[in-house]
Design goal:
Elements: E1 9-10, E2 13-14, H1 19-31, E3 34-35, H2 36-43, H3 49-63, H4 65-70, E4 71-74, E5 77-80, H5 87-100, H6 111-120, H7 131-157, H8 161-174, H9 179-191, H10 195-213, H11 219-225
Antiparallel strand pairs: 1-2, 3-5, 4-5
Helix pairs in contact: 2-3, 5-7, 6-7, 6-8, 7-8, 7-9, 8-9, 9-10
């Protein structure tokens, strides 16, 4: 498990893994099969290539036989063994399907189930600050936000407004300063005919952007509520 926290489980039981080995497993889980030298230079970026490779050899030697249960180490490359499942892979699969789907019934997507998974998933490896973790965390965060916004729009178009609001609000909670997430909330309320809710959502967005960024909502956002501007006065 990499989302929300680090955890390695076998048959429902947590397995203790040294911190350095956690980083190695996480890297391979996120990047897939890698040359040993690339793994070493990523995990020890501050040292020379030869020193980094020596650190990797030392890490694997100290880890002992447990390493062979989880790692495929062949032809100068490292990878997770087949059968090791990673929650990030499952989440990425959901998000890729959502982002590619056209919203038709032929998509065979379990939209409501996807909302629950996407709305409640945690950030990637919180508390880890390696450059490669920060990059992957932001990549997954952006995928999640776009997926939630698309999901909200689809649910609203199907008349499932409660689910649409849940998805849109999850996007706002994940990034309170993301205007497109607030815009999705407003659009969903308008689609349901809840003008007062849409105006409240707009006002929350405007106040937040003014206080935190010193800017006004975009013309696109203001255009949504233009027909009801007289109600804001």
């Amino acid at each position: 498990m990499l989302l929300g926290r680090w955890d390695l489980r076998q048959n429902g039981r947590s397995i203790e893994v040294p911190p350095g080995c956690q980083r190695l497993l996480a890297l391979l889980a996120l990047r897939g099969r890698q040359l040993r030298r690339l793994v070493a230079s990523t995990l020890w970026p501050e040292t020379s290539d030869s020193h980094a490779l020596g650190s990797l050899r030392s890490l694997l030697w100290r880890w002992g036989d447990d390493a062979s249960l989880l790692l495929d180490d062949t032809r100068g490359q490292l990878a997770l063994r087949e059968g090791v499942t990673v929650d990030v892979h499952h989440m990425v699969s959901i998000m890729e399907d959502l982002l590619k789907a056209d919203g038709s019934e032929n998509g065979h997507l379990h939209w409501s189930h996807d909302i629950s998974e996407l709305a409640h998933t945690g950030d990637l490896l919180p508390g880890w600050y390696d450059d490669w973790v920060l990059f992957e965390r932001e990549r997954l965060r952006q995928m999640r936000l776009h997926s939630l916004e698309k999901l909200a729009g689809h649910m609203a178009s199907q008349g499932q407004h409660a689910e649409a609001v849940e998805a849109a609000l999850a996007a706002v909670a994940a990034d309170p300063l993301r205007e497109s997430a607030h815009r999705t909330v407003v659009e969903v309320h308008l689609a349901e005919g809840n003008v007062s809710e849409a105006l409240r959502a707009f006002e929350r967005c405007r106040q937040l952007m003014s206080e935190e960024l010193g800017i006004e909502p975009s013309a696109q956002m203001q255009g949504l509520i233009a027909p009801f501007e007289h109600l804001l006065r």
